[in-house]
């Protein structure tokens, strides 16, 4: 018997749903760690602190997330709001990483 959580459509109990959500949250945190490693790299590569914030790139990243979400049948506005927070957190992290170097 596998310890892997059931896919959402196959869940029949809240215990199964919660196990799936918890497993997915662990995966998301691991993916965020990978994303933030790129922020460390950006802070190392950029020559000036003033180059950290790039509003055009921010808008592109959020639009890409919205488009990908909508293609999967997810609410684009909700995903765009999440990505707004993610990108702002990433910028703050990158600024901190830049200052540490």
From TrEMBL:
TM stretches of this protein: none
InterPro entries attached to this UniProt entry: Chorismate_II_sf (IPR036263), Chorismate_mutase-related (IPR051331), CM_dom_sf (IPR036979), CM_II_prokaryot (IPR002701), Isochorismate_pyruvate-lyase (IPR008241)
Residue ranges occupied by any Chorismate mutase domain in the UniProt entry: 8-98
Entry's EC annotation: 5.4.99.5
Keywords: Isomerase
Cross-referenced SMART domains: CM_2
Keyword Translocase: no
Coiled-coil positions: none
Name of this chain's protein: chorismate mutase
Organism: Sphingomonas kyungheensis
